[in-house]
Amino acid sequence: MPDPRMLPEMPELMIAGPGELHEEDLRVLGRQVIAHYGDTWTAIHDQTIADLGTLLGCADPPYLIPGSGSMALDAAIMNLFEPGRRVAVARTGFFGTRLAEIAAAQRLEVVDVPVEVGAAVDPTRAAEALAGAVEGLLSVHVETATGVRHPIEELARVAADANVPFVVDGIASVGGELLEVDRSGITAVATATQKGLEAPPGLGIVALGPEGRTRLEARSDRPPTWYLDLKTWDHYRREWGSWHPHPVTMPTNLVLALASSLRRLLDEGLDAVVSRRADLSKRAREGLRGIGLEPVAAPGVEANLVSAAWAEDPAAIQAHLLERGIMISGGLDPTEGKAIRIGLMGRTATEAMVDRVVGEIESFLRR
How far apart are CA 44 and CA 53, in angstroms? Predict the structure, then answer.
């Protein structure tokens, strides 16, 4: 069994998440563990929550919960929908299917909104699905299986017209795409820290818009969970907020690294961050197209944090890059075995690294 204290040299990550940490965040992560309560910790935690609210554009303080992005989706869906409700789910790809699976596990009835591979969700199709006594709409913002960005503002308007909640999987978009919860009329967004927020994995985030808070308070019964019941987290914020504003032991080092990355992103300005990432994504797509690999995403709906391109032998391309110290991702349903995916997040999200990846792929294709 490998000794974790003596890991071999690892490849540089250009995968669809997580991203490599920036040096200043890595230094914070490596500090000695601190207590998860008391004046110092509470000030750090409260500022981190406030910074998340600023980045997400929500007045209601977001929830920062130890766990994965899928855990955050579980929490958002469980708290906003009671069992037996019908919800429409956009089948955007691998993670759209996961949304449907989470909804079904919550004993919700799922109505599919079909989506063509490489295309964005058609709001008209979503509206048609909601016309059939459906009580909610769920969609991924960025589907990493295809590298497609979906039109969540238009979908939010569709949901508002039908007077139903709209829940967004923002795991692969927050920090990489423009997303403002309150202004867009989104009911809830679930995300995680390891992609666009450029922090370590291990923290999930749930952000509620005004309608999300209203629906949470209007439930006829609490959800059948303690840990993922957002009212549990509300209780500790309200009753223990001066020294222990959460119900569980928080992974303090993960939060400190997140706090560091948030300050960097907010100092640069979210518009500038998104613009920079859009330029890098364009560079990656144009580079891949220039060597004969066409993007999966249709023009105009390409995501910023991941670029997917069709390839005849993705596994061989991945193996070639690994030999040269770079790790990229293969496809996921519906692109499994048919595409490569290049992540554009974290320390390695640079023009030089993108050019290096494209150059190495070109050398493989010309062999």
Answer: 14
Largest CA distance in the chain: 65
On whether the CB atoms of residues 48 and 262 are closer than 8 A, the answer is yes
DSSP tag of 346: B
Q: 242: exposed, middle or buried (C-beta count within 10 Å: 0-12, 13-18, 19+)?
A: exposed
**If DSSP codes are grouped into helix, strand and coil, which group holds residue 139?**
strand
CB 331 within 8 A of CB 113: no
Amino acid at 228: L
The full 3-state SS of 289-336, as one line of letters, equals HHCCCCECCCCCCECCCEEEEECCCHHHHHHHHHHCCEECEECCCCCC
**pLDDT at position 280 over 80:** yes
Q: Where are the beta strands (DSSP E) in 38-77?
A: 63-66
Q: Closest Cα to residue 299, out of 283, 275, 282? A: 282
| Dist. CA 136–CA 174, nearest whole Å | 22
pLDDT tens string 143-173: 999 999 999 999 999 999 999 999 999 999 9
Average pLDDT, the chain: 97
